[in-house]
Write a structure and sequence with these properties.
two-stranded parallel sheet; 134 residues; alpha+beta; single chain; binds zinc ion
Amino acid sequence: MIRFNLKCDQDHAFESWFQSGDAFEKLSNAGMINCDTCGSTAVTKSIMAPAVSKSSEIAVPKTTKSPIEELRDKVESSSDYVGNSFVKEARDMHDGIKPERPIYGEAKLEDAKKLVDDGIPVLPLPFIPRKKTN
Ligand SMILES: [Zn+2]
């Protein structure tokens, strides 16, 4: 919707909403726009007041998360961060020294490969874990 400030041939100013500039032209040419005060159809646009009505506002989400960010949130909320102890923790769980639980952390590529070679299911995460202090 566009708001136009309109003026008739008697210099009466008023304003009205239109779907578009074209809509105004069509209505005006068809004599469908009347002055609020005197009813004259000799109405012209004076100053255009650009405004956008509420209904056509585009709702922009505050945060748009990428699939990777969503995965990170999921992993971080459901797994324990073990940092550099990842390889040891994973091995301990595999060897039955520690109870199994979902963990994530950091490991050198070669260490991660060794875990996989030993049949320990290690998945590379497509993100750098955020360090946690606890
Ligand atoms: Zn008028």
